[in-house]
Specification:
Farnesyl Diphosphate Synthase, 2 domains, two-stranded antiparallel sheet, 4 strands
Length: 319
């Protein structure tokens, strides 16, 4: 890969190529299972965040940012492979999942391989000393802990808002924070500015998850490109339902006894506007994120890209 800086669009194309290379970098046995996942990179929100944060005053991106972005994209893919196993999901982004296609055991192993491949990618950056403060393993640990906490709270119908926010802070927001942090390091920002980028990433991740929570109650399977109206049946308690339970505690006892019907759940979420409440929580983080973008005093092109990423998290990927 060329060591010359490139514009954002060129860098985005390079990330797609590099992520595909990482996915298929293993032995033929692994490739026979995962090669089709090169078509599953999606919107690349996290990868684009790395590139945007790394943009200099002239709108150019260092090749090291491509390495970070590709590694984070593959790590994200690995977490999705594992998520699909836990959720027993058949499809993801309109594509058959690895666990459905090749079995759960093979999917676990392939997900582990993708995680290792993502970590190895970071060893190939040019300016290693510049990035010594980027602890990729910590972010991986945060993601794992977030997923474990979510699993431990499965069917926890007494889950409170503050506890739920702490779960998604690791489960979803950690990887967004890692993306914005990595980009700021490539840009060689001072520690105060790095902290702002990290906070912007964290808020964007929380907003993204809260918006995603609403999909189960708002969208159809065709528009969401994944199963919907299934969270409650799978014991997954998200913000819209937490709000409904807080408004009508009697529903909690019915849920715990196994007598609360799916139709009653959707009726309660609608009655107490659980979706609207969740969007209002997301809006509070959105306003804080916008304030950080203003505080960072970045160039017009960079500001536009980061604002678009924030809006995409806030409005949903399909909008």
């Amino acid at each position: 890969m060329t060591k010359n800086k490139m514009d954002f669009e060129t860098a985005s194309l390079e990330v797609q190529k590099e992520a595909s290379r990482i996915i298929t970098s293993g032995p033929s046995l692994i490739n026979s299972y995962v090669s089709y996942l090169t078509d599953a990179t999606g919107k690349m929100m996290r990868a684009k965040a790395v590139l945007a944060c790394a943009m200099d005053s002239e709108g150019m991106v260092d090749p090291d940012a491509v390495k970070f972005a590709a590694a984070i994209e593959v790590l994200h893919l690995a977490t999705l492979v594992h998520d699909d196993i836990m959720d027993d999901a058949d499809t993801r982004r309109g594509q058959i999942t690895l666990q459905k296609k090749s079995g759960k055991r093979n999917a676990v192993i392939c997900g582990d391989f993708l995680l290792a491949a993502a970590i190895r990618e970071l060893l190939d950056v040019a300016e290693k000393d510049t990035y010594k403060n980027f602890d990729f393993s910590k972010y991986v640990q945060d993601i794992a802990l977030g997923e474990l906490r979510q699993n431990l709270h499965n069917k926890d119908f007494r889950l409170k808002t503050f506890r739920y926010l702490s779960i998604i802070d690791g489960k979803t927001a950690a990887l967004f924070e890692a993306s914005y942090h990595a980009g700021s390091l490539v840009l060689d920002c001072d520690k105060k500015t790095q902290k702002l980028y990290r906070r912007l990433g964290r808020y964007t991740g929380i907003i993204f998850q809260l918006t995603d929570d609403c999909i189960d109650y708002e969208n159809t399977k065709d528009s969401a490109l994944k199963p919907v109206q299934s969270d409650f049946e799978n014991g997954v308690v998200t913000m819209p339902l937490i709000h409904a339970f807080e408004c009508e505690p009697a529903l909690i006892e019915k849920a715990e006894s196994g007598t609360l019907l799916k139709e009653e759940v959707f009726e309660a979420v609608k009655k107490y506007d659980g979706v609207g409440y969740t969007h209002s929580v997301a809006e509070s983080y959105y306003e804080r994120a916008l304030a950080i973008i203003e505080e960072l005093q970045m160039g017009k092109a960079k500001k536009l890209i980061l604002t678009k990423l924030l809006n995409r998290a806030y409005n949903g990927l399909s909008k």
